[in-house]
């Protein structure tokens, strides 16, 4: 049975009941899975009032209680991973193994926040006078509004929810209407764990209308968003107009630098597999490949051979390695990228077309000898297309890697310590991965620089955006 869809406001699950609804569709079969109710203006106002009321007591709750609830959510996520993952695959499309991995990883995130929320410390500042005591307190910022995307619906939502709740904030979350089951699953696990009413609220609706309503409300004091750069800038501008704190995890266009001293076969194998994870719909997916000239052909041959063997199909099929794109509109976007590359003289070595079957399936695609001014090299494809270009001089490679306004993740393959050290220093990215993929662990910060965002999620930085600093001096 697919997840029953509802709003979650003030501890209650609210179904359609005369509300506007929208179809939720399986991208692999185009089957309608369920009806998602949209929140009315009155529903959103009720969520705001509930979050504001709950904050008055939750802000003073024991960190031990917060930790206990987060640990229960982690345990329930592991217990129910199979069912949650199946529904996630149904409405988002990724292979079941990837969905299951996402849920298990999210349980780790809940456990991490359960531990860290017990360690939100202030400090004593030695005073200049013996009769004065100076204290620095860290307090929850207030009611938060969070907006999360469809590509990792459980992961992106639970990071924000755990950080807000662990810090002592209350939160209103608008998840992805296209893939809502995972966010519903989060609400049900927190409900079962005994979270007080109003601390977590879930609303759905037209994204621009819901975000405008929430951000303009004087009740909301913090905004957290994961999504595209253009939408992030709009929300940041609106939040700035109302002097509200923001955390923004925005899009990237991750460069990959493969140097001639790297283990070429290993690099090609790893990168090919990572490229088609979630059909390339990953904000830290490797998306701009720069390969040193004297190993270019060797890398390309291995990379293409690896992708040729990828099994594309329904995410619930046991042998599927790459599922469909989440939306039909992504198919036309892929066609636009490939057409532009061809007109600029690039070669399409593999794929480059929609697969002839029901569903939003696009073939894994490799484009070689592509100029830097092409759409593929300047705009994030967010799909299973790998543009691969040559470089000779390392200085040129670093310059090209840093040439765009994005700075989320970067990947480097080299067996020279000097090159690795230089890459770590010179690449303009929030996360630099050298010879493997090591980002997005609960204990490590996740975030970008430049247009790719503001702030970090995870690691010891995880609560920074949800806390204010208060200085107290007493004589």
Structure description:
By secondary structure, the protein is an alpha/beta fold. The chain folds into 2 domains: 7-250 and 451-474, 3-Layer(aba) Sandwich (Aldehyde Dehydrogenase, Chain A, domain 1); 254-442, Aldehyde Dehydrogenase, Chain A, domain 2. The protein has helices at residues 41-58, 63-79, 81-92, 96-116, 153-167, 181-192, 207-216, 229-241, 264-275, 296-308, 329-343, 375-378, 394-401, 417-426, and strands at 7-9, 12-14, 21-25, 32-37, 123-125, 133-140, 143-147, 170-174, 200-203, 220-226, 245-249, 254-258, 286-292, 347-350, 365-368, 385-391, 409-413, 431-434, 453-454, 467-474. A 7-stranded mixed β-sheet has the order 14-15-16-13-12-17-18, with helices on both faces. α6 (181-192) links the parallel β8 (170-174) and β9. α2 (63-79) runs antiparallel to α4. The radius of gyration is 23 Å and the shape is globular. The relative contact order is 0.14. The mean pLDDT is 97.
Features:
single chain; 475 residues; alpha/beta; Aldehyde Dehydrogenase, Chain A, domain 1; Aldehyde Dehydrogenase, Chain A, domain 2; 2 domains; seven-stranded mixed beta sheet; six-stranded mixed beta sheet; 14 helices; 38% helix; globular
């Amino acid at each position: 049975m697919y997840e029953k869809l509802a709003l979650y406001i003030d501890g209650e699950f609210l179904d359609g009941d005369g509300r506007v609804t929208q179809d939720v569709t399986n991208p692999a079969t185009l089957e309608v899975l369920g009806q998602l109710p949209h929140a009315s203006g009155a529903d959103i106002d009720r969520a705001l009032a509930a979050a504001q009321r709950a904050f008055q007591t939750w802000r003073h709750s024991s960190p031990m209680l917060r930790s206990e609830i987060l640990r229960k959510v982690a345990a329930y996520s592991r217990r129910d991973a199979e069912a949650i993952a199946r529904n996630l695959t149904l409405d988002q499309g990724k292979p079941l193994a990837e969905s299951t991995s996402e849920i298990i990883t999210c349980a780790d995130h809940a456990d991490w926040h359960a531990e860290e929320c017990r360690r939100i410390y202030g400090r004593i500042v030695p005073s200049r006078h013996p009769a004065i005591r100076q204290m620095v307190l860290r307090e929850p910022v207030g009611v938060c509004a969070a907006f999360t995307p469809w590509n990792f619906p459980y992961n992106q939502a639970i990071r924000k929810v755990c950080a807000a709740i662990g810090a002592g904030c209350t939160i209103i979350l608008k998840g992805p209407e296209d893939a809502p089951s995972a966010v519903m699953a989060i609400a049900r696990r927190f409900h079962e764990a005994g979270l007080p009413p109003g601390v977590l609220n879930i609303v759905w609706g037209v994204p621009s209308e819901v975000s405008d309503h929430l951000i303009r409300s004087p009740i909301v004091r913090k905004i957290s968003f994961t999504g595209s750069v253009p939408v992030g800038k709009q929300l940041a501008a609106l939040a700035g107009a109302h002097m509200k704190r923001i955390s923004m995890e925005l899009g990237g266009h991750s460069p990959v630098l493969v140097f001639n001293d790297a283990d070429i076969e290993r690099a090609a194998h790893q990168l090919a597999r990572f490229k088609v994870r979630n059909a390339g719909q990953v904000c830290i997916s490797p998306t701009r490949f720069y390969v040193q000239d004297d190993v270019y052909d060797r890398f390309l041959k291995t990379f293409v051979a690896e992708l040729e063997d990828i099994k594309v199909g329904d995410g619930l099929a046991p042998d599927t390695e790459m599922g469909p794109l989440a939306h039909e509109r992504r198919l036309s976007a892929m066609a636009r990228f490939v057409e532009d590359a061809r007109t600029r003289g690039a070669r399409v070595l593999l794929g480059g077309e929609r697969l002839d079957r029901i569903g939003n399936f696009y073939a894994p695609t490799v484009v070689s000898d592509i100029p830097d001014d092409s759409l593929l090299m300047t705009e994030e494809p967010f799909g299973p297309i790998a543009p691969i270009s040559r470089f000779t001089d390392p200085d040129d490679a670093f310059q090209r890697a840093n040439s765009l306004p994005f700075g989320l993740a970067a990947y480097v393959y080299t067996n020279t310590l000097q090159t690795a050290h230089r890459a770590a220093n010179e690449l303009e990215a929030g996360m630099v991965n050298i010879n493997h993929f090591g980002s997005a662990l609960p204990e490590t910060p996740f975030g970008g620089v430049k247009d790719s965002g503001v702030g970090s999620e995870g690691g010891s930085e995880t609560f920074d955006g949800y806390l204010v600093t208060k200085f107290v001096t007493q004589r």
